[in-house]
Give the backbone structure.
Amino acid sequence: MLTSSDIAREAGVSQTTVSRVLNDDPRVTKETRQRVIDVIDRHGYTPNAIARGLVTSRTSLVGVLISDIMNPFYPELLEAIGSQLAAYGLRMLVADTASQPEEVHARLLVEHRVDGIVFTSALLDSQTVASLAARRFPIVLANRYVDGVECDTVTTDNGGGAKAVAEHLLELGHERIAVVTGNEKSSTSRDRYAGFVAVLEEAGVGLDPTLVRTGDYDYERAHATTVELLELTPPPTAIFCLNDVMAFATLNACRRLRVGVPEEVSVVGFDDIRASSYEAYELTTVRQPLGELARTAVDLLAERVAAPDVPPRSLVFPSRLIRRKTTAPPRRAIRRRTVAQADGRRANG
Amino acid sequence: MLTSSDIAREAGVSQTTVSRVLNDDPRVTKETRQRVIDVIDRHGYTPNAIARGLVTSRTSLVGVLISDIMNPFYPELLEAIGSQLAAYGLRMLVADTASQPEEVHARLLVEHRVDGIVFTSALLDSQTVASLAARRFPIVLANRYVDGVECDTVTTDNGGGAKAVAEHLLELGHERIAVVTGNEKSSTSRDRYAGFVAVLEEAGVGLDPTLVRTGDYDYERAHATTVELLELTPPPTAIFCLNDVMAFATLNACRRLRVGVPEEVSVVGFDDIRASSYEAYELTTVRQPLGELARTAVDLLAERVAAPDVPPRSLVFPSRLIRRKTTAPPRRAIRRRTVAQADGRRANG
DNA sequence: TGCGGCGCTGCATACGTAGTCATGGCATAG
DNA sequence: CTATGCCATGACTACGTATGCAGCGCCGCA
């Protein structure tokens, strides 16, 4: 491979000058610059970012940690992050923590001296995040936060979104509601569940513990769980899945069992990934402003790299309920709802 | 950041010895090694892969070029590639050519001195691939090949898969078949289309040119195209989409227009991505052995990095038709098929 | 006891670039 | 005409690691 010295020799200048040309240093004559550029073009020389990184201790590389690239939520997030990084001249080093533990990936990223790391799937007790934050390595938590760690964080209002779901379902008259939770160690699942329960309790509508199942944000698991739920007597009238992928699994399980949605059971998801709006699903769900979230996360990271000493910032973006066609009043809701309202709700209100 | 010299000083050894410990060099006493490891652990030292890369001219980084990360096919492929790379101790530098031209991404990857590049979405006339191959830079084409370029290539038998689709549809009695093609400059789309047409022609079943539309492997575009196709009189009795994502679009368009699948129109896809088997679609499609494809691509690349002078190899994996529920005989097929068979097909057989 | 050999360690250097400091040329001001 | 200063350029060095080569001590064999 050619080096800048090779180019310099051929152009009759010093390696320093070549370096200046490559970095758009203004103190190079137009003629000299052109001469160097000609030689570069002629030979197809490519500067060595490794050597540059060694000197500048900047690599223009940013690690992005993902837990499950098969979940379409993450490609959507990745795309947004990637394009915003590109705006800063940065590149993504993607690592899927499905293949190896988060810690291993993070260590390798640090070895490669990435300028920073974006965590999209950190768990609440992530030691990796804690230790990196303690060492003041530039990181940003996008989508999920970590308990007890002070660092730049960008999330959606998961609690608020789940509350909107609860209000929506209550409004429709549902009282026997199942919840399929996500990864129990994720802040998203915890916050969504907490927000949902809070509204239900306030309304005096209890959540039957046997109707709360963990789906681990996993399609297969949620599918199996839904089958179990639908075989209960009586089955729930509504199922709130804490992400869209699990909601798809639920909808598909309903199809398999020939359970009508929303006639027999309402289904709600969370995320509003692209496929949620497809005719195959038309899922009622909660929209996250993914673009803004990603953009802000990258902005924060870039700022931190530039100024490591600014205090950590946490931003929360609002979420929004998107009503589509998977929610409706429960069967025989008219009667039951009136009774319920006359009895339970007023008594508790 | 700590350096190996810092560790060396503290452990009372030379930087060389620290380097040897890190690289599992056998000629270091057990005691010395332990002493060094202790210091490393105590300080949380992380070796600098940049500096290492400068010396060894190996980065353990492999670039992976993707055209559209939102197409679930690519996350599936990515996951397979990533896990196989991990087996070699290599890491993925993912670049989505949706954000910037392939050429720009490739240049940056080369600047970062990646050990090699996996192209998953190269177009038939890719200058980037041609120039890299000419410079003997280690690359491998996975999924798609490039015309006139000799380099390691791993593909699925796209022509064969499409032929199986054609035979399947003919067997069911379809004669008015629409095709929604992919990116016209991709080898996959070209080969699939060619294989499909070949079988139809051999059977004496013509392909009405107005029924051949480009969908560019894009969901939205295929959705709109399907609407147009279904509004024709008479509409096609079957639609072959050259990938699954477009087939989903077609199925969803059918849902929107309340066109029964497979009663009124049969739909076939290609790829067999995960969602194709979901109850929402149950798509008849062609399965690609994605795991094998990815694994082999990485193997080839690794071998080429080790031995740059071995002649390029091209491997083609068989594809397989997966019959699900989106294909059936056309309406009034019994009569029409018999007539057709008695006339056209026998006359041409 | 002497010498060769082996096992362990350290010294010095190279990798390709960016940046610091020095140099020489030229113009402008005194 | 000289002094000052700026501009364009170049020599030199550092970045952190790996590696070739040298050194040193110890063991075994003659």
Summary: Chain B is about 45% helix and 15% strand. Residues 333-349 of chain B have pLDDT under 50 and may be disordered. Residues 176 and 236 of chain B are 5 Å apart (CA to CA).
